[in-house]
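Shipment paperwork, digital attachment
Item: protein structure file
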Amino acid sequence: QVQLVESGGGLVQAGGSLRLSCAASGLTFSSHTLGWFRQAPGKEREFVAAISVSSRNTYYADSVKGRFTISRDNAKNTVYLQMNSLKPEDTAAYYCAARSWNDYSNVRDQGRYGYWGQGTQVTVSS
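Attachment content:
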């Protein structure tokens, strides 16, 4: 049974930082592209970042580029999202997701991710 478990969310002031973690089990972690998505209240879930199996390629939404960094540790079956210079508009539930390494479709397409975590809440106060 595949499980993705996010942690690290919380309440932070604008300009602050948080690091999210997502621990995976039940799948060959090193064979999966990992992504982070977020959903704010009343809005659709949107792409945040993704990372290839070897960490060679990373992808970011324009809204977080330069502030967020995605990374992974295949030995620990964990993907991270370092979030700096947080803004109130970053407030959302953040989800990690996994898809097979040999899916070459757009990494921003959340429909291509077969495995999802339960989410962790990030709240940024102004």
